[in-house]
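Re: pyridoxal-5'-phosphate structure - here you go.
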Amino acid sequence: MNKNNGRVYNFSAGPSMLPLEVMENVAEQLTNYMGCGQSVMEMSHRSKEFEAIIEDAEKNLRNLMDIPENYKVLFLQGGGTLQFSMVPINLLKKSKKADYIVTGTWAKKAAAEAKKFGDIKIVASSEDTTFSYIPKVKKEDFRADADYIHITFNNTIYGTHFGYIPETGDIPLVADMSSCILSEKIDVTKFGLIYAGAQKNIAPAGVTIVIIREDLIGFAPAETPTYLDYKVHAENGSMYNTPPCFTIYVAGEVFKHILKNGGIDPLNKLDVEKAGRLYKFIDESKLYNCPVQEDSRSLMNVVFITGDADLDKKFIAEAKAAGLVNLGGHRSIGGMRASIYNAMPMEGVDALIAFMKKFEEENAK
Amino acid sequence: MNKNNGRVYNFSAGPSMLPLEVMENVAEQLTNYMGCGQSVMEMSHRSKEFEAIIEDAEKNLRNLMDIPENYKVLFLQGGGTLQFSMVPINLLKKSKKADYIVTGTWAKKAAAEAKKFGDIKIVASSEDTTFSYIPKVKKEDFRADADYIHITFNNTIYGTHFGYIPETGDIPLVADMSSCILSEKIDVTKFGLIYAGAQKNIAPAGVTIVIIREDLIGFAPAETPTYLDYKVHAENGSMYNTPPCFTIYVAGEVFKHILKNGGIDPLNKLDVEKAGRLYKFIDESKLYNCPVQEDSRSLMNVVFITGDADLDKKFIAEAKAAGLVNLGGHRSIGGMRASIYNAMPMEGVDALIAFMKKFEEENAK
Ligand SMILES: Cc1ncc(COP(=O)(O)O)c(C=O)c1O
Ligand SMILES: Cc1ncc(COP(=O)(O)O)c(C=O)c1O
Ligand SMILES: [Mg+2]
Ligand SMILES: [Mg+2]
Ligand SMILES: [Mg+2]
Ligand SMILES: [Mg+2]
């Protein structure tokens, strides 16, 4: 337990920690938002109160990420998973070919889903080393007539992150940024489409942000389910149907909170410092190891192992008892994973390192 | 304003009022749910805390609606709108024919969407009288080889409601119950599939309840987008991907609240009393009229007009100033609509009637 009202440090890969200040404010306004006599949970999405909420959320996100005017920002339901389908359905517009770089479980799922809709080529994969690094890919590696290239910018399960933006020339680059959005300044103009489930750095689960260049909108086949057509959402300001209003509101509050604290730069500085301390400790320790190649390491998901599955289990259980929860690796690979998203304070990382040190002493061989 | 902490009476058609007691409890637990040190907004969907939340929500809904064992209960994203697509994609399994009864805007949209996927016949429509009644349909009116029949049980915009359940024999009956679920006891076994967006009687927008008979699951074509296959969700307890956890939690809290107060029967009694008082007042008044045929009137959405569009506008504005908000009819038809869902207390209806009386006196011709 820490000093934040008996709250634990939650290292979950998502849904995950949100800024306490934002949640306290949301709680305070829960039954009566800004004196309007209604909860945001109860508000008509056509009311002027909610219209201001969604417009501000978009404006503040544009401001935070420097999103150019020729990109639409959409707030959608269905998670990253629905984007695995919507991307190929909408973007396979000409050759029906797309190239995928497979750097983990989510990238693999995205590629497998796309195969339902077109000719998908895996141009690079790091599966041979259990996804322990990000392959270096050059423009020549892509098919010249591909409709788009897809990458998973941060790999939540394997703890890797693209240290570079692949050069794709005129071919639109699509990136799943679910687990790293808002953790670093990125040049949006280098991408045709960016998507991100909110449940790591932004908000509770239930809304997915899509940032899409306007010229890519409008190519879904006629028989596309209406909800899966970007054009429908783009033309209706994400209000073709009832949006997940409350979740969008919390996202907007997080955007305001980040802006108030200086935007992405100071946040990234803190993220670099947090991850840096943790990786340094792991690298120097005898007990713990990080299987990820140094140039490919994620700032958000720090994966480590002791090399002894039983000891890993003991670690996770004792950490939990010490108020450091959800340190288990993804159920598909085991080991440990500390997800240290934007809302994880430095104190949480320091508490984790202190615990790791103590555990190492107690379990020295 | 009423006495509930400066809250207004909100007659919105959805999202709409939620029980104050539930919201107060949610607010109290917002940063630390039941002492676990995390907000439900931050909880891993794989945590034992959230698993208990979603299991309880399902169990309590089964209990409230007497849902038989051979039906699955799913918590999905995408709203009623995504169900307009998922129903035909999954249920057009043999003849690829389905029959729709068109009783309003949503029914029409559902039918139009289904036409992308099969041979859809409108077997009855009340569009000729601006949807002022529910057509009486007999078994002989349906195509004998139809894969399913679709109805909109309560028509949110036109204020109508099916006073009967159409006899369809062996053909599965599908009902959109978005705007009436939990307002009356219904016999689930008469339906093959029931769906309902949560944002009227259940929870904030962002989750849709699907109740589906097991034998109807598993027939989506191979190229169906993964998220749109009921089988995927059914086999994974609505956790194939990250569900909208917080919204499901609030839904579960509403289910508990209804159970605590005796289940659906007392709620229905109150709903009948609320709607009854309002319709009686409208029918007896000289100024106001309800365009809906008596046997087709909704308990949830009470539509009325003065017959003078300017006077309607004045009514809506003055009502708002008096703390009775969102009384405007749907933007497609104008007039007035008082949505009096489960969470609208009798006092709200009485306050509305008192206001209507006063407005009528002041505006007598
Ligand atoms: C990088 C990435 N992409 C996609 C997903 C899937 O998102 P969702 O569960 O919202 O469908 C996840 C889930 O954790 C993820 O980490
Ligand atoms: C009866 C009915 N069905 C479907 C919908 C559409 O639901 P959503 O906006 O969640 O897609 C509505 C919306 O109000 C409705 O009233
Ligand atoms: Mg991964
Ligand atoms: Mg080491
Ligand atoms: Mg309608
Ligand atoms: Mg009258």
